[in-house]
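Quick illustration, no need to memorize.
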Amino acid sequence: MSATEHLYLDKQHPALWRAISGLGLKVQEAAEEAGLGPGLVELLNVRISQLNGCAYCLDLHVRKAAEAGETPQRLAVLPAWRETALFTDQERAALALVESITELPDERSREHAEAYARERLSAAEFSAVSWLAVTMNAFNRVSITSHHPVRRDRP
């Protein structure tokens, strides 16, 4: 393998990929059990992938968000969610929490984001959103490190 070839981590260690994929399925179950709808889950996946700059995951989760009923307008303004009234209190709390987990800001900022989320999310929602962020960040890092390609849509 040359230094310029991309090494797909998921192909190099398929058992590890299956393990993280299994974790992703368990996180989905926890989100469902906590009452988080698929639209919110995908909205959070998109926001985390935006922050991490993961093109592969953005392509995948923007599609899934649209399939779950997310609107093009809300997806377009997602990076500026704080500047619009298009998002509910629950969505704002979840977005603040996943951003804090993804960016790992200073302790005071983390505590503020967590307190904001705890006021608006149940314990089950808070935990499921947190696990979603942890897991999506891991998927982003696998795809970014592997240079997973985004395939062009067929006309």
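The mean pLDDT is 96.
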